[in-house]
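Feature request, filed as a ticket because there's no other form

It would be nice if the structure record came with a short human-readable summary line next to the tokens. Right now we just get the raw output. Example of a typical job, pasted below so the devs can see what we mean:
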Amino acid sequence: MRVPSSFQDPFASLTEPRSTHAPNQRHEWLAMLVIAVCAVICGADGWEDSEEYGKAQADGFAEVLDFP
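Raw output as currently delivered:
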């Protein structure tokens, strides 16, 4: 992940809440946090809004996040 360490620091103590056997683990936990935080800052009001925001900004996020 290429997210600046200053952004990662506040999240360092968080643990991965998803099950290691979950089929929906296509993206890293930190990448999901980055997208969620950015979406909320830009006015997202729920997971659907966050998903829509992430898809709309996918090219920009791909430059700084590791996606499959």
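Something like this underneath would help us a lot:
Residues 29-41 form the longest helix (13 residues).
The chain has a mean pLDDT of 80.
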